[in-house]
Design goal:
- The complex is a heterodimer of chains A (186) and B (126).
- With 186 residues, chain A is mainly α.
- Chain A is built from ten helices and no strands.
- Chain B has 126 residues and is mainly alpha-helical.
- In chain B, helix 3 packs across helix 4.
- Classes of the chains: A mainly alpha (186), B mainly alpha (126).
- At the A-B interface, helix 2, helix 3, helix 6, helix 7 and helix 9 of A face helix 1 and helix 2 of B.
Chain lengths: 186, 126
């Protein structure tokens, strides 16, 4: 965060080139969160880029009242939500079911590391709505429920419910892919 | 899935997704055309600290002067002397120096009123 502050102040004083640090530092998590919201790589990449441009334009008004990462995730979340609203995208996409089936037909016997990672990522990706986003913040980024509620503008109870349902759905998805190997996977 | 820690390790092992190679350069190209917004200036309060200080100083000066002037036209000192000074102004006795703080404080009050009107006008045009 202190490093962030140094670069934020530089950018605020017009030194644009320091924004590449912010991009480097947050691009993976921002892209992952966007992808787990919109489910399509190309769209997620465009939206993440849009979010970064918004971050750059508004960095002058960022006042450190919240963590910079929280602010970044909030912008990513809102950018994705705006897109979903305009596209009237259905959260429970048929395409995701199709993708999970594709994995099943791949070589199920040789579960090497790369395949496992890919399968895990796709299982997370198949979670409906913002479940993947919320679960990533909670389980990957170690954010607490209050912070996630702040980012997604939802109540703490709602976030807890989504985490609970998300866990169950993830288990179902992983069982589909790995059958009896789910336990060994985790 | 049994525990929270197990799910946590599941998410950690899934890792993060990697955007394309041009991702970063695309963003830097786009921001080259943009400018960060500056923090919006706080609107000036209708009654500023400067004005309050100005009015307070002139009131103190009036008070001190009214004590300093013992008697005018047979009346006892203090504030009555300031009132007498106003009276003297109309009776063409301009040499009474007690009138100065009164003029100063009047000017401040006028400024205050002017400022209030300006604020109202700005609100109308927004």
């Amino acid at each position: 965060m202190n490093d962030d502050k140094y670069y934020i102040e530089k950018i605020k004083h017009g030194e644009k080139q320091y924004f590449s640090y912010i991009v480097k530092n947050y691009k993976k998590i921002a892209f992952t969160l966007a992808l787990r919201m919109v489910k399509t790589r190309a769209v997620a990449e465009d939206l993440t880029q849009d979010a970064f441009v918004k971050i750059f334009i508004n960095i002058g008004v960022f006042d450190y009242r919240v963590k910079f990462s929280t602010w970044v995730y909030k912008i990513v979340y809102n950018t994705c939500i705006d897109y979903i609203r305009t596209q009237k995208m259905r959260f429970d996409s048929i395409d995701n079911e199709h993708f999970v089936k594709e994995i099943v037909f791949e070589d199920r016997i040789d579960l090497d590391r790369e395949f496992r990672t890919k399968a895990l990522q796709e299982a997370i990706l198949s979670l409906p709505g913002d479940y993947g986003f919320i679960m990533t913040l909670y389980y990957y980024d170690d954010m607490n429920i209050a912070e996630i509620a702040e980012i997604t503008a939802q109540s703490k109870e709602n976030v807890k419910t989504k985490l609970h349902r998300g866990r169950r759905l993830l288990e179902i998805e992983l069982t589909k892919v790995f059958k009896n190997e789910v336990k060994s996977l985790i | 899935m049994k525990t929270e820690n197990e799910i946590k390790s599941l998410f950690k092992s899934a890792g993060l997704e990697e955007p394309s190679d041009f991702f970063e350069s695309n963003i830097m190209e786009r921001i080259a055309l943009e400018r960060p917004l500056l923090k919006a200036a706080k609107p000036k309060p209708i009654i500023s600290v400067k004005m309050i200080i100005g009015v307070a100083i002139s009131l103190i000066v009036i008070f001190i002067l009214s004590i300093a002037i013992p008697e005018t036209n047979g009346e006892s000192g203090r504030l009555s002397s300031a009132l007498t000074a106003i009276e003297n102004l109309f009776t063409k006795n301009y040499k009474d120096w007690a009138i100065l703080p009164i003029i100063a404080s009047s000017a401040f009050i006028l400024l205050l009123i002017d400022n209030l009107f300006n604020k109202q006008r700005q609100k109308k045009f927004r």
